[in-house]
Each structure stands twice: as structure tokens, then as C-alpha cells.
Design a protein that fits this description.
The chain is of the alpha/beta class and 187 residues long. Helix content is 37%, strand content 18%. A 5-stranded parallel beta sheet has the order 2-1-3-4-5, with helices on both faces. The chain starts with a strand and ends in a 5-residue tail after the last helix.
Length: 187
């Protein structure tokens, strides 16, 4: 069984440490799992019910929904902007939460991780993302967390995949998400 995990990164900056963390996740995925880094969150317009019209959904939002429909689980990477979730990640969650009753997150395991400059690694933003995904119908794995503090210093000269501690923690996170998807359901 192959498990497909869709990664959404809440930072648009090319050199983003959260993007680097997501790139590391792609490389560290266990056998039988594929982590796909979704490209294109910047092109998705802010959610507006007036433009979310069946048959005429903006192309970028439609691509996100199509990717979500093909995935078994979600892995969200969130920095912290002014103590909360970045708008681009919240916007993706909003688009995937619609149409009402048909959320792209519905019943799919979701883990939120990330890194930030501050001493707590973005935990407030990650908590907000977990809350939003849970309300949107996702199965948030509340006990699977990774918040890496001091990103600007920690990753100044090293990519997260080459940081043994972070790579080990990220491997464990992906493994737990993978295990949640691939485990046979209890009868």
C-alpha cells in the first residue's frame, strides 16, 4: 500500500526554513510513503464564496482541491507570523474546507509542524492551524508535534535534512503519520 501525504507550506519565501523542512520531509519519507510538496499556494485567491462557484472555481484553488482529493494525509508546515498562522496557509485551509460537507480534509489524518525564529518554534501558529483543520473536518493528530525554535540561527549554515536531531524528529513525525494511515482500522 502506498500512502500519499500532501505537504502545504505556510511560507512563500524561496529560502524559507519551513520550505526546507518540507523538502526534508520529502527526502525522509519511509518506504511505502510519498510526501508531495504542493506548489502554488501563492496563486490561490483569498477565499470568497462569490468566486467559489461549481464549474468556475479559480484554477489554482481547483488544483489544490484536486491534490487534496488524491491524498491520504496532510502534513502542514507553519511558521509564525505575529503570533499566529500565516494568511497563505489559512487561505488553503479555507479553500479545502469547502464546499460545506465535502471538505478536502474530511477524515484525513493531519499533522502540523514547523520552525520559527522565536524560542518556541511557532507553537501558537501551529496550534491555530490544528484548530482550523479540525474545524474543517480533518483528523488532527494532536500528539504528533514538532516545533523547531531559533530557525534563523539553527539553519543559517545547514539544511534541516542535514541536522541530525531535526531529521530524526521529522522522520518520527512522518512515520507516525504514515502509521496512522496505513494501520488497519479497528473493527
Amino acid at each position: 500500500m502506498s500512502v500519499h501525504i500532501l505537504a502545504l507550506v505556510g511560507s512563500l519565501r524561496a529560502g524559507s526554513h519551513n520550505r526546507q523542512l518540507a523538502e526534508a520531509a520529502v527526502k525522509l519519507a519511509p518506504e511505502g510513503a510519498e510526501v508531495e510538496l504542493f506548489e502554488g499556494l501563492a496563486e490561490i485567491p483569498f477565499y470568497n464564496e462569490d468566486i467559489d462557484v461549481e464549474g468556475d472555481v479559480p484554477a489554482a484553488a481547483a488544483r489544490l482541491r484536486e491534490a487534496a482529493a488524491r491524498t491520504d494525509a496532510f502534513l502542514l508546515f507553519s511558521p509564525e507570523y505575529n503570533g499566529t498562522i500565516p494568511a497563505v496557509l489559512k487561505n488553503a485551509i479555507d479553500w479545502l474546507s469547502r464546499p460545506y460537507g465535502a471538505s478536502g480534509f474530511s477524515g484525513k489524518p493531519t499533522v502540523v509542524v514547523g520552525t520559527a525564529y522565536g524560542q518556541f518554534g511557532g507553537v501558537w501558529a501551529q496550534d491555530e492551524a490544528r484548530k482550523a483543520v479540525g474545524i474543517a473536518g480533518g483528523t488532527v493528530l494532536e500528539d504528533v508535534k514538532l516545533s523547531v525554535p531559533g530557525s534563523v540561527v539553527r539553519f543559517a549554515e545547514i539544511h534541516p535534512v542535514d541536522d541530525a536531531e531535526v531529521a530524526g524528529q521529522l522522520t518520527e513525525v512522518i512515520g507516525r503519520l504514515f502509521g496512522h494511515v496505513s494501520a488497519p482500522s479497528a473493527a
